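Newbie here. two chains, one complex. Structure please?
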Amino acid sequence: MYKTKITKLLNIKYPIIEGGMIWAGGESLAIAVSENGGLGTIAGASCLSPKDLISKVNYLKSNTNKPFAVNIPMIYPHADMLAEVCLNYKVPVVITSAGNPKKYTQTFKKSGIKVLHVVANEKFAIKSEEAGVDAIIAEGVEAGGHNGQDELTTFVMLPNIVKKVTIPIVIAGGIATGEQILASFALGASGVQLGTIFAASKESDSHINYKNAVINSKDNSTTLTGRRLAPVRALKNDFSQKILSWEYSDLSNENILKNIGHGGSYKAIIEGDIINGTPLAGQSSALINELLSVNEIFDNLKNEFNRAVNKLQLLNS
Amino acid sequence: MYKTKITKLLNIKYPIIEGGMIWAGGESLAIAVSENGGLGTIAGASCLSPKDLISKVNYLKSNTNKPFAVNIPMIYPHADMLAEVCLNYKVPVVITSAGNPKKYTQTFKKSGIKVLHVVANEKFAIKSEEAGVDAIIAEGVEAGGHNGQDELTTFVMLPNIVKKVTIPIVIAGGIATGEQILASFALGASGVQLGTIFAASKESDSHINYKNAVINSKDNSTTLTGRRLAPVRALKNDFSQKILSWEYSDLSNENILKNIGHGGSYKAIIEGDIINGTPLAGQSSALINELLSVNEIFDNLKNEFNRAVNKLQLLNS
């Protein structure tokens, strides 16, 4: 697979980043992704105490000498705590998301930490470049988990943002095949971020029920709830149907939030209740059909990528 | 630009199809697209009498000797009338949409008419192949106008459908640049369908207010209404905000439909009332920044495509 600005910036072999995934993205998965030549990412969202994150960072440092990242979703109340641990333990890369890129970027950069910020539209791409981040991750509406309000798709957001910023762009949302990686390069990306395919891999911390639900899903198996509040993509189930029925009613946002409650993603991803919990997953679920190890996933991506390069060259001849 | 199964099937120079666009897609635009080497399409939705369509077909036949298409959206009550004219006047290509591909396909094919059917998920892609269509047009949720219920994006739908059917696939939804055409080929498409960029071109029948609204729009300027009924993507305005507020309430679908009324797209696209009408447009609006002729659009697409091919080869070296 090609060398790009992202492989150089992050000192990784392949321009493939593991998305920060609450509950699924633990230390085993991050090590596997980094050892296979990508950038593994510890999901800060699941680390509720400094000890949680410190033990994961230490475990990664003693099990791989390759770079890795910690994701800090800035909407969570424990974001400042995560940032402090990242600074103190000098993690190689921090991926900030769901917040203002100005808040942490310069502090991290002064400590020699590379900073990538997740955006979902042109406005935040420009703000991120102004804040001095090293690269942006542009995430389309096909992505699992939290989504931007604008519902821009990967295929349109990327060629638009490419014209608006000069820093490298990693594209995210819906990606699970090598053909899509080649297409991302054609659109001007320097790297890709994959989430759901890793969340459903052997090394993921997620429950086997969750992995099987992703593997057995169809193209229309996910849905976006929370359009009136904070959009979230997950596999359709009884719970998502209930949430949608509350949204398409005259219930207030406060009452909808009260009805939804807390812990839906933990219930689905860790406890395996994929009917009554929230099994966060992207539209790429349609492209994921087997329980694979991270090593097998990387092999597939490379093979698909090379086949796509060859097919394109045949078309061109 | 590459020769593909679609250029061969349709006997056109470039694998670029004009989407069927109510009000915007008249005879001047279709002639310009076909004369520039693509496949121009008369929007059947705007032809309310046989005379309307017959005069357009005759006008095309006397002004270009290149192939062209008629789009028949099967949800409209005048679909049978359109089909009869297409048969009697032996149009080269029919593009059916929003209905069952079994209804007309074999009748057209027996008359030597090529049939393409528009789909928005895997299920209808497979049904279309079974019905014997020559190719499918897979349209993602970024597209302007009527959308499928599943809200699948172009970037995920295409690599999924490629594995499920053997007939050629044209990809649609969000496309307005040559880089996206190359990316579509990388994902396995044999052609692309473009809508909004042609609807906002010099040769389009649309009002200048509509063209300017598309040209001046940003990445977050479109919205999807009608999720409870029949999804439609258009530029955000006062009217779309009203529709959304009705949807997120306990109004019945019948009352929402009554409130929406008829003629919104005519008001916006022909009369130029882009505030109170429905200016149908796709997310590709973000990528359209100038009032151009169809000839200039084709030049841009070819240049962008070739630049993207060269950039990809540089990455590979």
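Moderator note: The two ends of chain A are 22 Å apart (CA to CA). The domain at 5-206+285-316 of chain A is CATH 3.20.20.70 (TIM Barrel). Thread marked as resolved.
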